[in-house]
Amino acid sequence: MKYTGLGCTLMLLMLLAMAGNAAAPVLRVSAVELPPFIYQSDYGPTGLIVDAMAEASLRTQLTFHIEFMPWTRAMSQMVTGDGDAIIPTQFKPERGALLLYPNTPAHTFKFVVLTRPELASDYKGKTASLFTGRFVQVRGASIGPVFDSLVASGRITPQLTNNFLSIGRMIAANRADYSVMPALSALYYQRKLGLSLALLAPAVDEHPVYVAFSKQSDYPEEAQQRWMDAFDQMAVDGTLARLEAYWVERLQSTEIR
Q1: Signal sequence span per UniProt (predicted)?
Q2: pTM for this one?
Q3: Which of 94, 102, 203, 215 could form a Cys-Cys staple with 110, CB 3.0–4.6 A?
């Protein structure tokens, strides 16, 4: 299948909405905005993971609806069953009682350090050099085992914000010095927002992220399995890899919406 980005995503969603599906209710997705994987554009939800969800919808003939919210609220909806699925989320053992994780991740985040250009020369690839800087992260969100452990031990005490969109702006405005985020997100901030930011190599961590399902919701188990099977198929036939390549190319172009 050839992808044309946002237009493709919206077309698939409109076709599925018109077709309807009596076999299962609409999947209510609680989403944390994280460009370019999932974010709100002028035309509705878009992004790499949104495209993957749209392709899975086409394959399963199941529909979904995305609602954006802070991470803490999204997780609360998984507890109460007011949401059926959450994206994006990493696997953590303590979440196993709450969330059903598929075998296949929606994407694998490669985490890099984001900072201002004038601070980049001080970074030597050692996390210890970040301890004295003003570190910022999203409230309640995991940023991978390495930095989660540094935060838990108190070696890094982060400033907290409610969404990933504000992180790039905070660093560019000298209200924070560093953050750790997926490399494609950091590239998005540079290209889309035109912020003067630096990505520090090499990647400091990588971790798969999933479309995970609430065990507390009434969404049918058979429909959950169909979604998970679709992601398995897309991994095998190369669809997920092609989507990633498309978004990397798009981010390197001059037009991002």
Answers
A1: 1-19
A2: 0.77
A3: 203
